[in-house]
């Protein structure tokens, strides 16, 4: 099966958004061994879309479209493909019902163009949209499979993961099956990791090993190809064990997990609770924690003490500490972590103070970060790191580094 | 001039990274009126790349390539295009010098494959690489312009902005110049906005009007085409005024701004300060505020009161309120907003409590959100909204909705 992804939307060609949908779909398809040879982006224009489809049909037998399923005149993916394939569009009753329900619930009058969203190809397999209105669809005709997905990632991603992947797996021969496993590392650079494993990566063909660095993390993607499920698994296990012998201390998890999630799992399994005091990260650590459902078992809350006044008046940092050492100091970080832990009555308190940039602060350069970690019945610790990058990457890396300290402490 | 961007790299087709290069280049080209009709992504494979070039040549006269200029065997963009066009590759002395310099400075022995990076098309205009090794190049042949840029955004972006754009402008007729303006709206759905402006959008040809919805917002992109700078500006102003007559109450800003930024500007110009109490949004509002540099003038800090205990013990919400109405209630939202404002001694306090999902809470369905807004010397208000989408989009939209309430109150 040769895949091609066609994203439809002039906003992509105008550079208003990046084609993250193609990234998401490609990643999922790579995991089940479907080769993607092309991504195409085309605007909201029927004629150009039709030509892109013809080109795709000449080289691919799985064509996945994203975008253009909405209610407006610009949304013409469905109509164009239906016309090109000579299939009828019919109203899907389930989708129409949930669209009407959506408006009824909100007491908003439904404009007529919204009915268009419930149109699907006749005889297509319909993919439900659990987070929006327009359903997706799959149809195989002349040995080519056409899948239409909505454009907004918040609708496309759950639809593709929950329904689209199943539809593709049903059409796939088991002989082509591959299996991927991603090993995630923190606290080691890409070149160091690659250097440590160099001989090994080069001689390895099944599974293949592909390193990738992003946002201070490094991942290794192992990809094994074998008709037998068991044998694929065994090949991956064997290679993973060899890698772990050399760099296991930097490993934190598999596949799509995050350091924050792994930290949370450990806190929860230890029956502990966490609270947070954030200055330079401004809420990012807590935002990432609470983006995971069900964290209320171990996450209590925290303080964003952005100004010195809040550090002193709400968090109870000693004014002398701020006066003597400044807010960007190990002393301030330690008091912040310890005080938030006591204030919120938790087992662990963590704090972040530092310079996100672009300007320096208290004579410290952007990227300077102090992370305080306070465990009940243990002496409070403070770590200094100098993080590379701009304001955004400094904050992101500070958050990961903090989670990494808690994770290391707990395991 | 019709543009097409061809990104070369198997990592894109495996979904390891998104094609942000195409976004960047498209945005720059849109600003000078060059239409981009297609993006293509193709892997590190000479045969497939050659076919992609042939397709591009049949429909575009400006073809921009990113990626595949590096030293490894996988990097074959230059060789493939040179072969296809029948042009010679020659060493560029300046580039070769700076590559040698790079290794000398770091006391690293230069491996022979690095010399390959200094190869350029004979007679091409060379684009210097100020942040890396491989130079870019531009060549016009048979009325088609080919531009080759490196893949890493940190090299591609400065090269394209500083040298690539100039090379394109030199080839562009002033007659084709366009100018775009994006109008941003909140509190109105895409279909309603489009319905309200329908007659107007349909009859409008210069500027064109393109609506786009994402994450609860709607934007209209106006694009005017005219040789004169002044006349382009006048066309945009005229159309904007007509749009504002009908939907001006939902407008919040231009181009790349955000509701949070516009809210911040208004708070700052009113010499006011803000504090925040977050439950379901878990720090997201504060994270978005503090991602803007310089907010310490008006943002003090806040509390993430994720558990009921923190709402009561730290934020001082009345236990009876929680008992009688629950934490997902207008009463709790109002106390949270008012109490955080007093605790942090600010002019404005805002609070978020609700159900992010996936599970219901206190009998309220996911997406139910109460937003409390407390201004000093005004009665505290509470707003209920039922937001669509998954956990992530509910949180994102709640944050925007809160900022929108403060913004409306202040203007």
TrEMBL record, chains A, B:
Gene3D superfamilies: 3.30.70.2860, CinA-like, MoaB/Mog-like domain. Residues 4-171 form the MoaB/Mog domain. It comes from the Bacteria. InterPro entries: CinA, CinA-like_C, CinA_C, CinA_KH, Competence-induced_CinA, MoaB/Mog-like_dom_sf, MoaB/Mog_dom. PANTHER family: NICOTINAMIDE-NUCLEOTIDE AMIDOHYDROLASE PNCC (PTHR13939), NMN AMIDOHYDROLASE-LIKE PROTEIN YFAY (PTHR13939:SF0). Belongs to the CinA family. This is Putative competence-damage inducible protein. The lineage of its organism: Bacteria, Bacillati, Bacillota, Bacilli, Bacillales.
